[in-house]
Structure formats: structure tokens, C-alpha cells
Fold Aerotolerance regulator N-terminal domain-containing protein.
Amino acid sequence: MFSSYPYWWLALPLLLLPWWWHRQKRQRLTAEPLATARFLPAAEPRQLRIWQWRDRLLLLVRCLILIALLAWLAATIVPWRGDTVLLDNGADPVWAQQQIAAAGMGHAQQLALPAQPLRWLAEHEREWRATARLLIVSRHQQLAMPARPPQFAHAVTVRTMASANNSDRQPVQPVLPVQEVVLATTPERMALWRAMFAAFASVDADQGRGQGGQTIRFADAPGPATSLIIWDRPDAAPARWAAPHWWLGSARASSEKAEGQSVSLHGLHLRYTDTVQGRRWTSEAFPPRDAEVAHALYESWQQLQPAAAVPYGLTSQQWNATAVPSARAAEAEPARWLAYLLLALFMIERVLSHARRN
């Protein structure tokens, strides 16, 4: 707080107000006990002023309210950042320093590049002064290109390190999430299904996706992250189970109605039906009994999966300052938790003030 907003403490003399309010003036008369006052000359009674502390706990709470109020006003009104460089820690240090020096921002403050720099700048832009400049230094394909040019109240310069093969137009490859699969089958057919997933993993390794390929995690019951349920039992699945996709083995497919749409890929015939529990897939290849069928099933399933929207990498460019509405001050940090603290202190002050009157 002291390093972020170096001028807010100049208003601390306002703490003298509750200190003054809580000092009470009382007058006490002094008189001498005499038998009679008939023959004494007339004189004004002498008075003594005694300063006395009252409600010290209430005084402390009110002082804290003033401190929190001053800090909240400083956090929401006073911009304090100057020229700033958002530096990617994984970038080449020599190249990064060259870009910083070329932009004339060697004196600027350096911050670690956030996970989403453009959104982070939009949320914290009010922290920079009107004359401040911002420089983003990042590796190639670390920043996703936005759908439209962003608008900032400050000049923002982006410098990205070009790749060795000059493939700036290649999309950023996202890391595939872990896929959760529920495998419900009989002990006799468990080995076939396990062998199928082992074949899927070997295909990922052969295609060079050992680091970024799909990771399968097995679960006993479906959850929010479950993407596939394999049901290879004669009995029906529980009605409360749901997932985007179901694979019904031959033990259950014989009892399902022969309806729905059919798809033929890589020599395999697949049939699917949309239900309230998810899309049910049936095929004679469930489960595959040899490596060739497993490979064909893998390729077919990859084609049926929806393609992920992959953004293009952001290239080096510059955005000039534009007249945009300032960010909401109440949503800034640490203004949010300061506002909560101010509200809590105000409630405590009201309780103590009410208790004092009663």
C-alpha cells in the first residue's frame, strides 16, 4: 500500500478530527466551605477545564475508517504507474533488452507478463498516468490475436520475437485438456478396452504428440468433466448418468433399438442416437480386437471430434492512445477489498455508537 500509492498518506492529518471529537470539555466549580458567605465580597466562581478521553474503542474504529477511506480513494482515483514494460520471462534476455532500449524505456518499470495481457491491461489501465507508455515484450506465438484491435487510453507497443522459420501466421497450438472417461464393462472385456486406449496412446506418440496429446483419466462414475462413458454391460446404465458421448459395447448394443444416423469412416460403420443422457454410439468395432481396427477407430473418432478454435499469434504492432471510457474504479485492485474493509468498519462503528447511547 505504501509503495503503490505514495501520496495518499498526506491526508492522514484528517485523523485529528475524531481525536478532537472524542475530547470532552468539562467545567468543575471550586468553592471553599464557610460558615456563612454574607460578608464575603462578590466574585465569579473559578472554573477548571479538564480534558478527558471517552470511548477509546470507538475512537480507534473511527480512525481506522478514515485510514481505509483515504486508501480507498487513493486506489480508485489517483493513478500512480509510469512507463511500464510487460516482459515475458521466457523471452531471450538479450533480444528483450534490445527491444526495451529501442523503445526508449530502459528506465521503465518491468512487470511479469500476465496470462492474458490484453484483458489484464483493460482491467488495470486506470493505474497508469495519462502520459505513461506501455511495452509488451513476448516470445513468438505467446499472445493470441484479438478479434478486433483493442482500444486503450495509453499508447501500447507489442514486440514479439519472430520464430526461426518465420511462421508468424501459424496458429497457436493449445494444450489439450485431460479427458475423463468412465469405463463400465465386464471383467472379461476390460482387457480389450484397456488395450484400445494403449493403442490410442501409441498413435499419439507416433504422430509426435507425446507432450501435447490427449491424456485419459479413468473414473468410476461420471462427473462434470466426463467426456465419454463406455458402457459394455448387459444391463441398462443408471438413469442419472450423463455425458456428451456414450460408447455402447456389443453386450449392450444388441438390446438398443436400431435407429438413428449412421456414419462410415475408415472402413468402420458407426451409428449414433441423441438422447437426454448424451449421444450414444454403437458399432461392431466396440471394443476393437486388433491393432488395425483400433487405429481405424482412433482416426474415425478424431475426425468426429469438433475442431477447437485456435487463435493466431499476435505479431509486433503498436496501438495509439484512444479516448475510451475509463475502467470502473470500484473493480480495481486493491479497491475491492478496501471497500469490503470500509464496509465492515462502518458496521462496527455503528454498533459501538448505538451501544454507547444505550
Observations:
- The CA atoms of residues 234 and 327 lie 59 Å apart.
- Residues 166-175, 327-331 have pLDDT under 50 and may be disordered.
